[in-house]
Design goal:
- Helix content is 29%, strand content 26%.
- With 439 residues, the protein is of the alpha/beta class.
- It has two domains: 8-25 and 237-438, UDP-n-acetylglucosamine1-carboxyvinyl-transferase, Chain (Alpha-beta prism); 27-223, UDP-n-acetylglucosamine1-carboxyvinyl-transferase, Chain, CATH 3.65.10.
- A hairpin with a 2-residue loop joins strand 14 (215-217) and strand 15 (220-224).
- It is globular, with a radius of gyration of 21 Å.
- The chain binds shikimate-3-phosphate.
- The site of shikimate-3-phosphate has 11 residues, from helix 5.
Amino acid sequence: MSTDKNIRFTVAPGGALRGTIRVPGDKSISHRSIMLGSLAEGDTRISGFLEGEDSLATLAAFRAMGVRIEGPYDGEVTVHGVGLHGLQAPREPLYLGNSGTSMRLLAGLLAGQAFDVELTGDTSLSGRPMRRVIEPLTRMGAVVEATPAGTAPLKIRGGQSLQGIDYALPVASAQVKSCLLLAGLYASGRTCVTEPAPTRDHTERMLAGMGYAVERQAAKACVQSGGHLQATSIDVPADISSAAFLLVGASIAAGSDLTLEHVGMNPTRTGILDILRLMGASIEVLAEREVGGEPVADLRVRSAPLQGIAIPEALVPLAIDEFPVLFVAATCATGETVLTGAEELRVKESDRIQVMADGLQALGIDARPTPDGMVIQGGVIGSGQVNSHGDHRIAMSFAMAALRASGEIRIDDCANVNTSFPGFVNLARGTGLDVRSDG
Ligand code: S3P
């Protein structure tokens, strides 16, 4: 992946965001479309696939396990499924770049295969906690070796017979839930996962869409082994987590009026809309429809004065990837914004609490990190230099901050924007953000 190149963004202050655009495809759904399409019987046709490094890492992993995959050609992918038992041993370790979703979901899916496999990643991914999947997988009978710190590389020993478990997730994590449901496809009996708070349910929806029964009762989701997946067509909506940058940008930049088309509106992902509306944002939801088992809409956002709030903790897992840019919204709000209950942010692609606090402070904002969140006083964003620490969402968040800054903002280490939002610079420029990429 491209973390070794210092791509720097330079963003001129001011401007407004206007027009109608479609941001790239949903990352979570793109990963799952390749994984489940590969395990299905028949050909799965995907449109709107995210051609970002993370989902391409998943695609390459399945190719390395013998799955014939055509594309992506302009978001179109055809996966020639091999069935639940048709994957082959890869010749080399599977390199998953920056992608936590690839590693955690694959760990579950591969724990039940007949072959050994090793999963590796870049420096950020190699520092992220994997015990959260290793521990329950081990209870199911899987054999997974990690470093003494519980991190990648992960060595998964094949040929184990897995047993279903009934597992209560200690943290609200869709990655861990999905990992266990995928392992459950290969385990004897029933595998059930109970979550402490709702997390994204794309795995459950896509399994059901491919004819695999998922039993859902309140906070519990269960699968039973012995079924099979039927290939289907998957229309990947635009990623609400990528739309989030523009929703905040247009909210904070006076004179903005921006429409984002075909955005995924799965209720386990729309916390960003609820939080921004609580702050006073003007977001209209237009043409709500359902596409392939996922709700979709167009979003029209116009600038509005924002107020600081205490972010309800129940919304945290529903907006878990959007806090870097929500912190920028908070700097542009009057008064204080308080986030609590979000310690998970410390183990994302970077420590998003510390890295955002450092960057906001460098721009003159009173941002105080806490163990599980942040306290931000609205203020005037100055000019200066910040470091994204190779975290795509930090880089794009600071790019949006320039819309309200008093001078230029330079952002270092932006190459990983390509993991989730290829074409960000051109798309954002087209709406009115004066951003340049060098390096
Ligand atoms: C994801 C789940 C979330 C999210 C990540 C994608 C997924 O992680 O942060 O970007 O596709 O399942 P957790 O479930 O670990 O919170």
